[in-house]
Amino acid sequence: MAAADLVHIPDVDIDSDGVFKYVLIRVHATAPSGAPAGESKEIVRGYKWAEYHADIYDRVSGEMQKKGYGCECMGGGRISHQSQDKKIHVYGYSMGYGRAQHSVSTEKIKARYPDYEVTWADDGY
Q1: How far apart are CA 53 and CA 83, in angstroms?
Q2: What is the per-residue pLDDT for 1?
Q3: Mean pLDDT (the chain, rounded)
Q4: Sign of CA dihedral 1, 31, 54, 101
Q5: Read out DSSP for 21-61?
Q6: SS3 state at 96
Q7: Hey, what's the torsion of the CAs at 95, 118, 103, 110, to 10 degrees?
Q8: Which of 30, 39, 71, 109 is the least buried, fewest Cβ under 10 Å from its Cβ?
């Protein structure tokens, strides 16, 4: 996969409302050996259906591998998405993956939701 193809992967895909788990994932092109090759990018994925952070990572990494990309989970947390109030709050951590760098996640979310108030904190679970 060419590094330019990474631009076709959305930076953010989260549920439209509610409180749910999320993970920050680094996606990279892979060499024929399966080793990381070239550029990479971080993506944010968060869904209410996930009981565990690993549920999200397993599904997304499986989808990315089918497209020829490798993945690495950079951590997780929770997202409170209040669509009526146009507010998103990123916080907490994943027991399995540790705390994501919420500042990176919120910058990506702000770009996806420019008319929202997007905040983050390391507090909470």
Answers
A1: 22
A2: 43
A3: 92
A4: negative
A5: EEEEEEEEEE-TTSSEEEEEEEEEEEETT-SSHHHHHHHHH
A6: coil
A7: 120
A8: 39
Q: What's the rounded Cα separation, in Å, for the pair 11 and 4?
A: 14
Q: What is the mean pLDDT of residues 105-118?
A: 98
- Token reading at 88: 């998103």
Domain 2-121 in CATH 3.40.50.300: no
What whole-number distance in Å separates Cα of residue 8 and Cα of residue 11?
9
Exposure b/e, 62-95, CB count within 10 A at least 16 = b = eebeeeebbbebbbbbbbbbeeeeeebbbbbbbe
Active site members: 53
Residue 67 among known ligand-binding residues: no
Instruction: Kindly list the distances between the CA atom of residue 12 and the CA atoms of 1, 34, 46, 64, 97, in Å, as whole numbers in the listed order.
Output: 21, 25, 9, 14, 19
User: Rounded to whole angstroms, how far apart are CA atoms 69 and 34?
Assistant: 9
Question: From the centroid of its chain, how far is CA 115?
Answer: 20
Paired with 79 in beta bridges are: 20, 90
